[in-house]
């Protein structure tokens, strides 16, 4: 079993300072396994709300929860949102002797309910599948190909991994989306999701996508927000400031998990990915997700102008301005666009991130850097 030490430490620290910790993430990303690891060495009470026996135990939630001590874990809490008021009452009691760890798949409803009912009492920890920090840099090809969902990554072979991902997509569309209270036909959302796969790494254009699917701009935007709120899609927002250039102000769209992206594009293994026109965009999304999860920046942006200059990723760390370009190449070189970005954004450093394992400087500002070395530069 892969011990997810980073998440374990974050959850334990959150439990030590907050009466309620909400561990949120997509289904099957490992939340239940992580919670059971945390429970192993301390007194705990575990409720699985997909178990009828545990549901019966919580018929009178305020009474049963008030009598408990130690760590109380409530799994799949999105199935019983009426527990939130009871949790607020219990943690506000002067004689309360327990901390709560609630697990749930993110949805607009659960985020709103937790934020409104438990304001000032809850700390959020977002969780996702495996990443290179947990698996090692040598894992990048398999992680990129299969994605980070544990059962997909750990499958016996690529065929089993692909079958699991296809099952996940079907279950997500047919069960999870309706469970969140979102009434969208599964075939319609599948078509939308598949179309997004072809726009991975591109600027969002609601009119173009809506027109192709026969839906209006507002509907297309609502579909995108649903996939974003359920951790399927990352909307990278544009950076814009008062400079003498017309700047793009629509977000870029990326799949959070490249395994799902490859399934929707019908890319079955590493070799088929390498021969596909989307290989560069897929690599860009994969590398970006790994860097964000490793460095935990407060805000991340991209930058682009209508004249053609752009920067894949822009962030400010400790007052310094960094730009990142992703190149699926072993020997990338500087470009005119990079020079414009450095001048326009006043960058302190620009990194060209590649899939190799060597670093070298191109000039005083631009360096080539593998994914696993980026964190050391952003200081």
Provide structural commentary:
The protein has an eight-stranded mixed beta sheet, with helices on both faces. A hairpin with a 2-residue loop joins strand 9 (310-317) and strand 10. With 379 residues, it is α/β, with parallel strands linked by helices. Helix 1 (5-17) packs across helix 2, helix 8 (140-146) packs across helix 14 and helix 12 (206-213) packs across helix 13 (217-229). It has two domains: 5-126, Rossmann fold (3-Layer(aba) Sandwich), CATH 3.40.50; 132-377, Orthogonal Bundle (Arc Repressor Mutant, subunit A), CATH 1.10.10. It is built from 18 helices and 13 strands. The model has no long low-confidence stretch (mean pLDDT 91). The two termini are 33 Å apart. Helix content is 44%, strand content 19%.
Keyword list:
Arc Repressor Mutant, subunit A; 2 domains; five-stranded parallel beta sheet; 44% helix
Q: Specify the overall morphology.
A: globular
Q: What's the CATH architecture name of the largest domain?
A: Orthogonal Bundle
The CATH class name of the largest domain reads Mainly Alpha
* Integer tally of domains: 2
CATH homologous superfamily title of the largest domain: Winged helix-like DNA-binding domain superfamily/Winged helix DNA-binding domain
- Tally of individual helices: 18
- N-end to C-end Cα span: 33 Å
How much is the radius of gyration in Å?
22 Å
Structural class: alpha/beta
User: Roughly what fraction of the amino acids lie in strands?
Assistant: 15-25%
